[in-house]
Amino acid sequence: MTQPTEQFVISTTAQLDLLFEKVSDASLKKEVSNIHPRYRQLIEASPFCVLATSGPDGLDASPRGDPPGFVHVQDEHTLLVPERRGNNRVDSLRNILTDPRVALLFLIPGVGETLRVNGRACITTDPELLQRFSMEGKLPKCVLIVKVEAVFFQCARAIRRSNLWQPVAAEVPAKVPSAGAMLEAITNAQIDGELYDRDLQARQQASLY
């Protein structure tokens, strides 16, 4: 691992403040402690978010996705997030059991601005809430109730720099290793990558909900 040269390491807030310009008035005033109606529009248009948590075994940031509006705005201080089927690691949920602090980053295809929500979550299996999130006749495993503490939008610079919503060049997917190829390499061929990839799409489709 490359060790940073000590004289260039930023270790105080004073040093950090010197590195960046003053925060703009808009950047400060856009943060609120509730789900403003305009922010609600972003949440209801989003089909994808990243959930970040922290726990005794470390940090976790994992994707969540469903049709737009899959995260329900219960009221201006509460979000409901369904927990669908996945790989059963449930790293996020394990973290929430010991540290309820969560952060959500909402993305909307074609839109540069993202929405950030910080709050505290608990896990529920309330039958009425599970039923509310039924998809294709299947219920989520549980629902996260997020009590909102801070909400603000992030400007589009990162999205613009990355060209995230631009058409993807045909050669890009070919350069990325498949799930099976990664597993085969990481496990020293204990997992047959070709076999894993062959059945993956059908297996995922059968277990979406």
Write the layout of secondary structure elements.
Blueprint: H1 13-19, H2 25-29, H3 37-45, E1 48-55, E2 58-65, E3 72-75, E4 78-83, H4 91-98, E5 101-107, E6 114-124, H5 127-132, E7 142-154, H6 157-162, H7 171-175, H8 179-186, H9 193-206
Antiparallel strand pairs: 1-2, 1-5, 3-4, 4-7, 5-6, 6-7
Helix pairs in contact: 8-9
Please characterize this protein's 3D structure.
It comes from Massilia violaceinigra. This is Pyridoxamine 5'-phosphate oxidase. It holds the Pfam family PNPOx_N. Residues 36-155 form the Pyridoxamine 5'-phosphate oxidase N-terminal domain. InterPro entries: Pyridox_Oxase_FMN-dep, Pyridox_Oxase_N, Split_barrel_FMN-bd. The protein is of the alpha+beta class. The chain has two domains: 24-162, Roll (Pnp Oxidase, Chain A); 171-206, no CATH class. 33% of the residues lie in helices and 27% in strands. The protein is built from nine helices and seven strands. The chain has helices at 13-19, 25-29, 37-45, 91-98, 127-132, 157-162, 171-175, 179-186, 193-206, and strands at 48-55, 58-65, 72-75, 78-83, 101-107, 114-124, 142-154. Strands 2-1-5-6-7-4-3 form a seven-stranded antiparallel sheet, with helices on one face. Helix 8 (179-186) packs across helix 9 (193-206). The chain is globular. The model has no long low-confidence stretch (mean pLDDT 95).
